[in-house]
Input
Amino acid sequence: MNTELLRYSQLSSKEISFYHMAGYLCLPGLIRREAASALAEEVLKVMEGLGIAREDLCQARTSKDKLRQSRQYLAGSSLERLIHSEALNALAGQLMGGPATLYLPFTAVKSGGGGGRFHFHQDNQYTRFDGPGINIWFALMEMTPDNGCLQIASGTHLGGTIDSVESEDRDGHRTVAVEPEAFLPLRMMPGDAVAFSRLTLHGSGANITDQPRLAYAVQFHRDDVRATRAGKDLGLLKENPRFDVGPVEAFSPDGN
Output
């Protein structure tokens, strides 16, 4: 594989305008199929490093199986190259209208056998940004409604941060009191990506196949963004990052 995983890093004015209008932008073939395959294997190794065997990902057992998220990745890995890609940072900056800083990378693994539906929510319903934030979400395998593909409610970012409630699963995840009636299930192929605003309502369906759904997300904020969480001012995120987003030398089952 080339040193740079991304196939392109410059967006047209029409693409950027669509993103601002709709709150999301599909990025087909952003990484090559072979790169997506290598990243999928690394994500499975992250799961193994957390003590989750591959066969256990084929059958959901608890509410935690709805989405397995970990920000751990190994030094020298393809995941490290993706997360710290200058081209990826440039894409985020173009869509947010200014220089971007990495906020949070994480696995997005949904177990098979009915791995849970993820309720519609905004990322800004957790840590609240006072300016642009973006999630660039990579399909590492084919995504369909059957395996719980991402669902996007277009234009919902225009209303700002919506009041949230705890999801009916009582698992700490947030949702909206009234879910959108109109949304798009995003069918994607390995290597495709979608960028969406931190204010865009999104969720995913249950994975009713017998294989895990493998995806990866890399979140950014614009350099001038300040944040609050539970009413506490966190200051300028660029100077006061919430997470340690560096690589690890070995996986820790106690980490996330």
